[in-house]
Amino acid sequence: MMIFRMAPMGDFQPTPEQMQESIKHWQDWIGSIAAQGKFVSTNQLSFTGKTLKPGGVVTDGPYAEIKEIVGGYIIVKANDLDEALSLAQGCPILFVGGHVEVREVIQLNP
């Protein structure tokens, strides 16, 4: 699994052209992974949410205590972490100051 993280961009409002260019970069990058037969799934996460803490305490927003935003993820097929890191090269988040966290997904058998 690759988790996409970046610092909040404040009041930055991309133009429609910037949004289209960003979407194309993501589509091209994910498409290249799919073309290799390595794509499993992906989703973008919303910027709103709630956090449940011990004792039933609920706070607004999933980012109350962190300085980064988790913007989304992709699940890929890879033989090991090194192969997954290789697939992460060229991820569009890297070009806007973000980073990709690569982690193994462990299957749970109930």
Quick synopsis:
The protein has 110 residues and is of the alpha+beta class.
Q: Helix/strand-derived class?
A: alpha+beta
Low-confidence stretches: none
Terminal Cα span: 21 Å
Radius of gyration: 16 Å
What is the number of beta strands? 6
- The level of helicity is 25-40%
Write down the overall geometry. Answer: flat
- Report on the biggest sheet: 4 strands, antiparallel
* Sequence of secondary-structure elements: EHEEEEHE
Instruction: Please state the average pLDDT score.
Output: 87
Number of helices: 2
Percent strand equals: 25-35%
- Strand order, sheet with most strands: 2-5-1-6
Give me some keywords for this one:
alpha+beta; two-stranded antiparallel ribbon; 28% strand
Layout of helices and strands:
Elements: E1 2-6, H1 16-35, E2 39-44, E3 50-53, E4 57-60, E5 69-76, H2 81-88, E6 99-102
Antiparallel strand pairs: 1-5, 1-6, 2-5, 3-4
